[in-house]
Amino acid sequence: MKEIKLTQGKVALVDNEDYEELSAFNWHAFRCGNRFYEQRYIKLPNAREAMQFMHRQILGLAHGDKLQVDQKDTNSINNTRENLRVATAAQNGANKGKQRSNKSGFNGVSWDRCRQKWQAGTRHNGKQFYLGRFDNPQLAYGVFCLIDATILIERERQTIERELRQSPRNNQRLRHDLQIFIKDCQSELEFLDAARGPLPPEGASRKQRIELLIASARRQLSLL
């Protein structure tokens, strides 16, 4: 493992096999919330400039590819290959780091001292949503993952509908986005199927909706 120097006094961790290629570029430390990411600027075929993140370059993801890179330990400067994996938006969202003030050990879960229960919550479009109180943090986190991934899928669905309205003839882009959307939906179904015991009514309803979304996306894909 080696270090690559960034701006702002930061360094990135990379494997020895990637060091020579990556060190040939000037990487900048880009702050996003409480994390720093490594970026550089690249020239696109149309001569415009775009931002390239180090972890995406390592895994060979081209600019514009909707697939994401998940850092397993949530350490944004650890770009060793063992710590990186290609992920859908839903999978990446489920691995978000918890806040520093979080004492539960799980993202989206906090302790309600007044009611002596574990509370689950998430944010969407700048609003906080309460998801319920539970006897243990594991159950609260399970509900958080279910709702959070569902929100991500809904955002992707809205993006595809917008692209259909704005660029109905851009078949290649729509085909790619629909394929990623279907993978995200299938990932969420796997999460629901892995649940122990019967799903609560809310979970069963979401599973049915996701199955309908997959069927609709596949029909749209077949028409492109």
Task: Record the strand order, biggest sheet.
Answer: 3-4-5
Low-confidence stretches: none
Residue-averaged pLDDT: 76
Give the fraction of residues assigned to helices. Answer: 40-55%
| Cα shape | globular
Mind describing the biggest β-sheet? 3 strands, antiparallel
| Structural domains: how many | 2
Helix count? 6
User: How many strands in all?
Assistant: 10
Helix and strand sequence: EEHEEEHEEHEEEHHH
Query: What proportion of the residues form beta strands (DSSP E)?
Result: 15-25%
Query: What's the gyration radius in Å?
Result: 20 Å
Give a verbal description of the structure.
- There is one protein chain.
- The protein is an alpha+beta fold and 224 residues long.
- It folds into 2 domains: 2-87, Alpha-Beta Complex (Homing Intron 3 (I-Ppo) Encoded Endonuclease, Chain A), CATH 3.90.75; 103-223, no CATH class.
- Helix content is 42%, strand content 25%.
- The chain is built from 6 helices and 10 strands.
- The strands form 4 sheets. It has a 3-stranded antiparallel beta sheet with strand order 3-4-5. It has a 3-stranded antiparallel beta sheet with strand order 8-9-10, with helices on one face.
- α4 (137-166) runs antiparallel to α5 (171-193) and α5 (171-193) packs antiparallel against α6.
- The longest helix has 30 residues, at 137-166.
- It starts with a strand and ends with a helix.
- The mean pLDDT is 76.
